[in-house]
Amino acid sequence: QEGRGGLRFYEASMNAQLQARLQLEQELSGAIERGELVLHYQPLVNGVTGEVETFEALIRWQHPSRGMVPPAEFVPLAEETGLIDGIGRWVIEQACQDAAGWEQPWRVSVNVSPSQFRRSDIPGIVANALRVNALNPARVVVEVTEGVLIDDAVKAVATLNRLRELGIRIALDDFGTGYSSLSYLQLFRFDKFKIDKSFVKKLGESEDALTLTRTIINLGHNLGLQVTAEGVETQTQLEILQTLGCNQIQGYFVARPAPIGAFTELDRARTIARFSKSQARRSAGA
Known about the structure:
This protein is α/β, with parallel strands linked by helices. It has 2 domains: 1-30; 38-285, EAL domain (TIM Barrel), CATH 3.20.20.450. Helix content is 50%, strand content 18%. The chain is built from 11 helices and 9 strands. An 8-stranded mixed beta barrel has the order 1-2-4-5-6-7-8-9. The longest helix has 28 residues, at 2-29. The radius of gyration is 21 Å and the shape is globular.
């Protein structure tokens, strides 16, 4: 009896989860048309001066009853159901439209997931967004992870080359977390890579993290690549990365993702001042 009761409870629980998933999928399928998807932006700043160089576009779902749904809840669902094609296209188009209207010619960076990369004509979508918005290709960065190269590296490299021919920059995201990051650097000449936050968060606490981060930065520079550190949250992490010569800094230490207008001119000035103080402290301690 106890076993059968447990089974019924399990089945009811699974059915409830399935229904909730189907409901979320149905709601997500119309989110673009209802204007519920929005882009928040996180600045990437120069590692020496603190000047903003790029804003990374990060999708958010402003659900009418659930509130702000985090990407971790709906992006995997979009990838599994194929909804990522339309959502990914919207992100690229909206980010280019936004960037075209900015007061400064900052770069805009967009993420393309492996499933979106394989299923969609990303070069065609980007080319159209550039044309429609009269946006300089040099202001656009497409970020991919090594996952785009896993299934069919030859086809993936061909797509990356088509993107490069448009004049945009291409970044390898989450560098160091996969199994074959180094081998992929031989397949395609990326413009930059981003050190995963799992390394950055241990800086100042772990000698191994320091050694690995130094090695990654040196590798990037030796290959002629720009290196960005993700997930920078403390002054200590910043100063270590500056000492190591990291080109760009991104993380809560600078700003959280927010609507583009939230990072004001005053915020930019404060960031520059903090970086200047950090440089002065390092110089004094040298």
